């Protein structure tokens, strides 16, 4: 099949036509990819140091997808169903920048009929990263309906941050959000308890300490030295989880700092987990998988219900190419388009926001 893979030379990527078509195993579905969403980690492949743990030329790139089930090894997902999900793209031979992919049937989500598939193609990786950070790492209770302790979401304007906010708000957990000044009003409309600008970090930290002196939980979705320091400085004590590997520059033993990877939600070891100082134990992999399954599971998990209710709303997306030039009409040209999109994003030349690629030619 045609797919975008890592190149033979570290730090390169390649459009290929000779990638074996994956075959579905037990409890798996075989999906024709229609749309695939881009994510920041796709650009890490172009940096041989950052992607050192998973440099194999047969690794297929891309994590997010929406597509049509063409073969199913489970009775409750029929051939022809529209599904979205995420794959351990870039780091394994399972990726979404390809004509076809195989996915654990318990980790796909049915596409609600009233939500465009291209929007759903950019949701799973960010949504499940947010879910993983909140539930698997910070142990936030999203299910009981009890108003838990407030959670600081720094970088609430990132895709992961926006899904973290939505998850917390629908669970009635108070949210203290930090984002660009321009998005504070929209965060307030979404139901956060308080929203602060990210532009003036010292002033924002002072305001948070003043109004939220008992904060004990933080999710830093941006993960720069400045944001990690800021989060650590406003927690009285407790736990902050950072989505990129970073530590505050000043250690505060009363604040636990963790970094983890969404890949532990696959429930089994993958090479990329070797990047972690302490890879997850089999028990932790099983526990994280259980959380993922409780939200995915086609139309039986929480996410399908939350999407139908409008409690989780997919983020707006931009379809590549962004300049409105005519879209290529075959998969190979589209995969070449994804390659240039990743190269441009790595060079900082694409605007922020979710970018989705049309991959398949079916409708
Ligand atoms: N650990 C994992 O398993 C995992 C999985 C997925 C992603 N990640 C990582 O998580 C991070 C977020 O990913 P994403 O896809 O959500 O990112 P994203 O949506 O591409 O983030 C872009 C947004 O970041 C915000 N931003 C820019 N500068 C900022 C700053 N100085 N402080 C705070 N926010 C700033 C901007 O929003 P505003 O202008 O509205 O503030 C911008 O729109 C990435 O570094 C990614 O690599 C980790």
UniProtKB/TrEMBL annotation:
Superkingdom of origin: Eukaryota
Molecular function GO labels: oxidoreductase activity, acting on NAD(P)H
Xref: Gene3D superfamilies: Medium-chain alcohol dehydrogenases, catalytic domain, NAD(P)-binding Rossmann-like Domain
Domain Enoyl reductase (ER): 8-357
Pfam families, A to Z: ADH_N
Protein name: GroES-like protein
Taxonomic placement: Eukaryota, Fungi, Dikarya, Basidiomycota, Ustilaginomycotina
């Amino acid at each position: 099949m045609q797919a975008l893979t890592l190149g033979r030379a570290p730090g390169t990527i390649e459009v290929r036509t000779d990638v074996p078509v994956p075959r579905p195993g037990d409890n798996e579905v075989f999906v024709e990819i229609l749309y695939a969403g881009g994510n920041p980690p796709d650009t890490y492949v172009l940096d041989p140091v950052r992607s050192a743990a998973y440099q194999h030329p047969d690794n297929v790139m891309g994590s997010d997808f929406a597509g049509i089930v063409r073969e199913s090894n489970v009775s409750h997902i029929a051939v022809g169903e529209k599904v979205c999900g995420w794959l351990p793209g870039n780091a394994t031979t399972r990726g979404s920048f390809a004509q076809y992919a195989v996915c654990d049937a318990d980790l796909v989500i049915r596409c609600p009929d009233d939500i465009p598939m291209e929007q759903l193609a950019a949701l799973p990786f960010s949504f499940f990263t947010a879910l993983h950070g909140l539930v698997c790492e910070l142990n936030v209770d999203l299910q009981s309906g009890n108003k838990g302790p407030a959670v600081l979401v720094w970088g609430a304007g990132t895709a992961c941050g926006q899904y973290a906010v939505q998850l917390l708000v629908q669970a009635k957990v108070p949210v203290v959000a930090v984002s660009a000044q321009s998005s504070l009003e929209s965060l307030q409309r979404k139901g956060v308890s308080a929203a602060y600008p990210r532009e003036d970090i010292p002033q924002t930290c002072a305001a948070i300490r003043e109004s939220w002196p008992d904060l004990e939980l933080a999710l830093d979705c941006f993960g720069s030295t400045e944001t990690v320091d800021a989060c650590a400085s406003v927690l009285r004590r407790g736990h902050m989880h950072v989505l990129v590997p970073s530590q505050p520059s000043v250690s505060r033993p009363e604040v636990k700092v963790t970094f983890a990877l969404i890949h532990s939600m696959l429930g089994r070891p993958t090479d990329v987990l070797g990047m972690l100082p302490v890879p997850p134990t089999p028990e932790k992999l099983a526990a994280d998988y259980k959380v993922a399954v409780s939200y995915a599971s086609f139309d039986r998990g929480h996410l399908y219900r939350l999407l139908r209710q409008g409690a989780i709303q997919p983020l707006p997306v931009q379809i590549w190419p962004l300049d409105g030039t005519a879209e290529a009409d075959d998969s190979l040209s589209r995969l070449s388009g994804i390659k240039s999109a990743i190269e441009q994003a790595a060079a900082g030349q694409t605007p922020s926001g979710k970018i989705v690629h049309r991959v398949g030619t079916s409708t």
